Amino acid sequence: MTKRSVLIQLDTDQQPSSFDAIVAVDAGVDVQLRHGNVSLEDVRDLVYGAMFTRSPDDLKNTAIFVGGSDVSAGERIFENVGKTFFGPLRVSAMLDSNGANTTAAAAVLAVLKHVPIDGHDEITVTVLGATGPVGSRVALLLAGLGYRVCMASRKLDRASEAAARIRQRLRDANLEAVQAGNEQEISQTLEGASVLVSAGAIGAQLANQATWSQAAGIQLAIDLNAAAPGGLEGIDPQDKAQDRNGMTCYGALGIGGVKMKIHKACLKRLFERNDLLLDAEQILAVGRELVAQGLNV
Ligand SMILES: NC(=O)c1ccc[n+]([C@@H]2O[C@H](COP(=O)([O-])OP(=O)(O)OC[C@H]3O[C@@H](n4cnc5c(N)ncnc54)[C@H](OP(=O)(O)O)[C@@H]3O)[C@@H](O)[C@H]2O)c1
Predict the structure, then answer these.
(1) How far apart are CA 297 and CA 291, in angstroms?
(2) Which of 134, 138, 236 for a ligand 1 pocket mutation test, highest count of atoms within 8 Å of Cβ?
(3) Any idea which architecture 6-99+260-292 has in CATH?
(4) 10-residue mean pLDDT series, the chain (297 residues)
(5) What pLDDT is attached to residue 121?
(6) Domain 102-256: top CATH class
(7) Can you give the pLDDT at residue 2?
(8) Of 170, 209, 212, 169, which is closest to residue 189 (Cα–Cα)?
(9) 32-53 burial code (b ≥16 CB/10 A, e <16)
(10) Quick one: which of 122, 129, 133 has its CA closest to 151?
(11) How far apart are CA 282 and CA 134, in angstroms?
């Protein structure tokens, strides 16, 4: 008898995310075991519960999703989940705290579509709000693909710290940390850039239209902030490959539709085998497979 699929949600917030639970239902998960306020001390026993209940052949029907608004806490939980498994006694797991991995992957697919790195020595992407969980994953993924990434923050030391964290994971990452706390500094960070990704906090406008749309080299502009005012003035949240004065533009909902498809596809993937660990890079790989199969980015 085929076992029912069980997703164990390990959420670092007090109430496990209803958003993540609903996406799991829509992805076809049969049963969800939802845990909130999960701390590192809880991980071992929760993971043992997943490992020791089903035979190795059936373990692919159990999976773990790590979420919550605190991405650093989620990263530590996810790392510990992976360390708890041994031998064939393991289940697949995915990290998507704050939606950061799936959102970043969707944004990167848009970059790959419109300004592909293939065949170019160097393409520079400026990421505003690069210190946040989404922006830093956009930077990580793009650097991993060979782009030069200009990581911008309102404070230079924060940008430098975010770049240093990426270099711990990706030693040769081509990153520059820059301060972009006002329109003039933002203009400077756009010099020589072909792509602008704005990943600032929800509801915060990072650049006015005159600043970003007059940057000569920008071919593609992506704003991930859905709440008014948008991060890049003049981009509509619904924009999806919208031409605006010769620039291709994406708004948060234009990216969000692709993000949802990646999220659901990753959840389905978890139940195909019992040894997947889906972090940013693996989630992007799933997105690229979807594109190869015809997903419209
Ligand atoms: N489209 C989607 O599907 C989707 C999914 C998830 C998230 N999102 C959006 O993606 C964006 C990034 O998410 P996140 O969680 O990484 O954001 P976040 O951590 O809240 O903020 C990102 C960065 O924005 C900067 N910032 C904060 N307040 C600001 C202000 N008042 N003015 C200018 N900059 C400010 C900060 O950088 P510095 O202090 O270093 O300057 C911060 O590190 C958000 O707008 C979020 O809503 C979209």
Answers:
(1) 7
(2) 134
(3) 3-Layer(aba) Sandwich (3.40)
(4) 93 98 98 98 97 93 97 96 95 97 98 93 96 96 97 98 96 97 96 97 95 93 94 97 96 98 98 98 98 97
(5) 83
(6) alpha beta
(7) 82
(8) 212
(9) bebeeebeeeebeebbeebbee
(10) 129
(11) 16
Domain ranges of the chain: 6-99+260-292, 102-256
Residues in the ligand 1 pocket, defined by CB under 6 Å: 98-99, 103, 129, 131-135, 153-155, 158, 199-202, 204, 206, 224-226, 252, 255-256, 259
- Residue 271 CA, ligand 1 centroid: distance in Å: 32
pLDDT given at position 248:
98
Closest-CA residue to 149 (of 178, 112, 106, 183)? 178
- Give pTM, 2 decimals: 0.97
Type of residue found at 166? I
Three-state secondary structure of the chain = CCCCCEEEEEECCCCCCHHHHHHHHHCCCCEEEEECCCCHHHHHHHHHHHHCCCCHHHHHHEEEEEECCCHHHHHHHHHHHHHHCECCECCEEEECHHHHHHHHHHHHHHHHHHCCCCCCCCCEEEEECCCCHHHHHHHHHHHHHCCEEEEEECCHHHHHHHHHHHHHHCCCCCEEEEECCCHHHHHHHHCCCCEEEECCCCCCCCECHHHHHCCCCCCEEEECCCCCCCCECCCCCCCCCEEECCEEEECHHHHHHHHHHHHHHHHHHHCCCCCCEECHHHHHHHHHHHHHCCCCC
